Every structure is written in C-alpha cells, then in structure tokens.
C-alpha cells in the first residue's frame, strides 16, 4: 500500500508513505497525481475515484472543504472497497488531528510540512493492524483447507480398513507408501522442510495438521496435498477398479461430504478439484 496526502490546489505533498518497494520519486509522482486528478475533472466532468495504472489499483478521495487530495495505491487484486475503506480511515484521522493547523494557517496548508511527519507512525499502526487481520483470515482459510483434506483422508482410510480384505489392504498401503516416497523426492517439494510435517505410516496413516503456514507458502502446500490425494485415488482405481471405487466413496459418504460442503470448497477454491477427482474417475 502507498499513501499520498496532497494539497489539492498546488499538488504539494504533505505526507507520503509506501509499504511497497518502488523507485518512484514521491515529489514527482505527487505532482502527476494532482494534475491527473484535475485533468479527469475537466475532461470527463466527474471526479476520479478508482483506476488501474502501472500494475496497481489507485484510489482517490477529494476533500474540497480542506483542499486535500488523499491517494492510495495497492496491488491490483486488492478490492476497491477495502482500499477505499482504509483510505477513508486515514483521511478521517488526518482531519481530526490537523484541522486546527488548517484553521490556524488561515485555511491553508502552507508552512512547515514537518508538522505532518508524526502522522506516518499512525499510518504504520493502522497498516500493521490491517496486515494482522489479513494474516488471521489467511490462516483461518488455511486450516479449513487442512481440515478438508484430513477428513477426506480419514474417509479413505476407513474404506481401506473396513471394506477390503487384508490382501488388498496390504497391496494398497504398500503402493501408497512407495508412491508417497516418490512424491517427497520431487524437486518442487524436497527442498521445503516444513512439508516433512505431512507424514505417512501404515499404522497411523497421514498426519497433516501440524503444518505452520507462517513458514510456508500456502500454494505449495495445497499443491502437495492435491498431488498426494490424486495419487491415492489412482492407487485405489488401479487395485479395485473404477466402479468399485465409486461404490466405496458413496458408502463412506465422501460424495455426501463434498455436496454438503460445496460452498466451503468453492470459497477455498477446491470445488473443481474434488469434483474432478471423485466424480470424473
């Protein structure tokens, strides 16, 4: 996130803070932002609130009563509503703190600009709070993902234990162990030590709950779990056949689980994966 607070008439930068890596000159960009905003007013006869430019999403809030232009930029996948809400928080707090300065200077921002520097710390505090909320949300989604995979794996182990003869059980468990060992040696997975927390033994089956998202990329973990689960289904199909596997999945209520949790799976981006894996064998 990048924040500018500008004098809307002159384009002078009162405050600037960037949480993104950028080589842009803040003063030059400040003048451009003000000019671009006023250009939109003249040419399009309306104020500019949101635009995608330079690989970023930009939000503008004009405060005409105080001759202020508040601008925020963030990555394009940041929702406009969220970015606008955060910029509004910064605007309200800034006005609350510096309205008296505006009045004392004769309704002007001219003068010593260093008076605004301490407000950067308040922006940092807000940003840290927002980041923590995002991390909590990401972790909640992550543990939902782990819970889904763990439940499916439990159901599959129940199939192996309760719906197969011992000979088939031994063949399937041995094959799954062999294929799992091959997956762990793949280049894309072997250098991630935290993936070692996804363990397999014939006795206790898979354990995937002890993964620490803070030390990992969510994408590689989900990809790893998908690879493992797809491998297990292929082993079952190879040993028992497609039709028998479909009966097993139905009796063990895997289809019912997918159906009853479709909204969650869709929210987690897993719906198409599970539908393809279990319904299109």
Measured between the Cα atoms of the first and last residue, the distance is 45 Å
Biggest sheet, spatial arrangement of strands: 2-1-5-4-3
Approximate helicity band:
55-70%
User: Total helix count?
Assistant: 10
Instruction: Using the alpha-carbon principal axes, give the shape.
Output: elongated
Average pLDDT level: 83
Report the strand count: 7
Return the domain count: 2
Radius of gyration: 28 Å
Uncertain segments: 39-47
Largest sheet: 5 strands, antiparallel
Structural class determined from secondary elements: alpha+beta
Give a description of the structure:
The chain is α+β, with helices and mostly antiparallel strands and 281 residues long. The chain folds into 2 domains: 116 residues, Dynein light chain 2a, cytoplasmic (Beta-Lactamase), CATH 3.30.450.30; 140 residues, no CATH class. It is 59% helix and 14% strand. It is built from 10 helices and 7 strands. The strands form 2 sheets. It has a 5-stranded antiparallel β-sheet with strand order 2-1-5-4-3, sandwiched between helices. It has a two-stranded antiparallel ribbon with strand order 6-7. A hairpin with a 2-residue loop joins strand 3 and strand 4. Helix 3 packs parallel to helix 6, helix 4 runs antiparallel to helix 6 and helix 6 packs across helix 7. The longest helix is centred in the middle third of the chain and has 44 residues. The protein is elongated. About 3% of the residues have low confidence.
